[in-house]
Write a structure and sequence with these properties.
The protein is of the alpha+beta class. It is built from 17 helices and 13 strands. The protein is 38% helix and 18% strand. An 8-stranded mixed beta sheet has the order 1-4-5-6-7-8-9-10. A 5-stranded antiparallel beta sheet has the order 11-2-3-12-13.
Amino acid sequence: MTVDKRHRARSSGKWKRFAKPRLVQSVSRLIIFFSSPMDAHLLRVPVPLGLFPLQRPARHSFGRRAHALCSPIPLYPKRMSRVVRMRPLLLVTLVTALMPGGASLAPSTARRQGVNLEMTTHRHPSGRDDGTPLEKFRVDLDDPPHVRWKNIMKANREGARATMFYLFSSLPETVHSEVDVLISNAEARLPAWAREEMLGVADALNVTFGDVVIVNLFFEITPFCTSIVSQSAASGLIYHARNMDFGLAMPQLSASLRDIAIDVEFWNSGKLAFSATTFAGYVGVATGMRAGAFSVTANEREMTGSIPVPNIFKSLINLVNVLMSTDAYPVTWAVRELLEKEDSDFDRAVSLLGAQKFATQMYLTVGGVSAGEGVVLTRGRNELLNTWRINADDGEWFLVQTNYDHWIPMPPWDNRKAPAEKAILEVGAEEISPSTIYKRVLSRDPVLNQLTVYSTTMSCSEGTYASRVRDCPKCSPFR
């Protein structure tokens, strides 16, 4: 399209018709970044040298740098965006067709002989032992949002900056610049508390606001997890637990995240409001509990639809929509706001989390304080798709949710659900407790795998909340 035509389009009020391809181009570039070489590894897809260079231009908040690509053939975002716009089905078909043998979460021996549930014990390579309790910090909600994370970021500055550097070292400068523009335009539409807290994080780390927003949205779409909610036959109490698997098949990223995984107690008016497990600089909540009310964990919903497309492709487009409108809301921000409400309880949490419009599809596991108060909500962006409840009277005294719809068969390359269910049945409803779930379920391979960053156990009725770092190099490779 010529400059003349662009000018006439602006003058005639038809510019919006020509602006959309630029958004699609930005999204396609993000898909290229987030899906390669990571998804190439996950899907066992050979990576063409010309499409994914050996070294991308490094841009991070320590200053803009211009680097030449090492690959002899540069990226072609315009061509890629044209393919995404005109042949999305073809693109998906090509990707799925290149899956001759997806990597498996089952142990190498189990791939031939069945799942090996042997418990793993080992030492953390950096000296931080597997099972070490996460460091606990305090956020005072009475403080101005800008300073709430100051002490946390001071204590975790080196680790947080290293993690951001690792993420952005692979992000092309052109993509980074375009996303910065989207964030700049969206800043006023972000909720005030999130905007101010992320600005405070950026100041504490001496990085840009845009980079902090990108990291927060990145964490929104990429966690793979196992969530469990169970009911004790002995006491009727509800126990909630989860393993957080993170890293997109990149062990170095998982290692970086272990260094900045923390427990945070959020205080309000001199009282503990709620507890959460998060990463330093991440203001949303994917794992949290309000004692005496409810607990909640968020799991990514993966490989959905008539053609199973990895959720990261859909989520990137959805999260760009977050920056361009107020119709969609990040799930973990909504969870954080719900945990802050003093009048929140199990029923209200289930109702609100089932009704709100979200930026991306997700599974939300919610636990309460009384018998029967355990549920998994399967969420689309705009609707509640399924409600799965504990029903001990019918023998369903626990629920295990990973990253796939529970009513369909699990994919053969990633079946953590069956081993988790087998392990929890071995424990039994009479012996179930936070301790037995941690030792005999969350610590079993492949529920515990090479990308597991932390394990958390919670009990709303007892007011107990505990998280531990996980690092199992001898466990199954993720997927």
